[in-house]
Structure formats: C-alpha cells, structure tokens
Design a protein that fits this description.
Length: 239
Amino acid sequence: MQIMMATFFSSLHNCIDAIDGTHIRVKVSKEDVSRYRERKSYPTMNVLAACTFDLKFTYVLPGWEGSASYSRILDNALSREDNLNAPQGKFYLVDARYMLRSTFLTPYRSIRYHLKEYSQHPPENPKELFNLRHSSLRNAIERAFGVLKNRFPILAEMSRYDVETVSEIVLACCILHNFLVDFDLDEEIIAQVDRDLMNNEPDHGLANGAIARGEDGRRGEILRDSIAAQMWNDYITRH
C-alpha cells in the first residue's frame, strides 16, 4: 500500500492516516441508556481511531457515548492532552459524517463513492476519481476495524462490562492487533473482511453528512478541488 501511495496515489502524498469510528456494546445505567444508544436498539460506545494504510492503529479514543456525533468526538480528540496530531500541510482521510477541513478531507457528497460502484463504470470526472481513490485508501480503517473484531471476538460480547472496562479492553486489543500485524498477519481474516466490506458497504454519510463551515472548511474545499484536478489531469494523460 505504501508503494501505491507513492505512485498511483502521488497526489495524496500528504495524507497521514485514515480515520473513522466504530460502535462497541457497553453496559450503562438506565439513566445513561439514551445517551449511549444511537441507531441500534442497545447502548454502544463510539470509538474513534486512526490507522495507517498497512492497518496499524496510530490513535484510539474510546469512551464516547454511541449517540455522540463523529465531528464532536473528533473535536475532542484534537483538544485533549493526549491529542490526535494534525500537522499543518498534512491531512487525514475521513468519511462524510465528519466536517470537511484542511486537515480532514471528506469525499464529495452526492457523488459515487463505494468501490463496488466503480467496478463496472470507471470514473468520468475529477470528483468521481477523487472519491474512488479516497474510498480505496480510506477503507483501510474499516479493514482495520474488521480485522480487530475478527481477531478478538470478545469485542462483540462487551454488554456486561462498564464503559471504563470496555475502554481498557479496546485499547489492549488495538495494541495486540498492531503487534500481530507485524508478526502474525492472518491473510484469511483479511480476505474475509475484504469480502464482507465489498458485499456490505457501510454508510459513509454521503446523503446527509456534515457540511463544511468556516474559513478552514473553505480551505479544505480548495485543497480537495486542487487534488481532484491534479488526479484527473494525470488520469486522462495515462488513459
């Protein structure tokens, strides 16, 4: 994947990692159930994480209630003492549930995004090409979550543990996951996760995701448009 980033995805060379959230079941008091219940019928914890394109977690923030918005959790990650680092001139790839910023690039809304949508019909314009390549790289975080949950089935059986305990277990599993990526990468698990993702594309918030706001949002739009234009120029030259 690093070779891909250096060549085919050269216009994304300033990309650091991919970011997303995942929900883990959790036990909470009756008073807190509504805060921890999102679209599911049971309470969950929303875990924000960043990972490299070889599926290693570089930042994990557990503990947030399931109903918390993705942008709100990201804002907290940026302001904490153990904060998510977003260096100037670099950016992360995020889906449309996050706010577009100069350091967090979302896909174009109302434009094809899922990889399956491009399997028979190649991209036809700069925005579609950007979304295709964004999706190809950003799905590293979905693959990492998939491998994590397959490696550690306990993450699907957390409803008897409280928030603090679940947070500690999630962090421990992520640390072990990173070790195993280097020393015991299970290709069968990765292949199964890839099949599941291809057959069950998750919701990326493209229909009603967050809209860019403010000056930094405008900088994000300009950066995204310039990357899309560069990608398209390279693409049509080679094709």
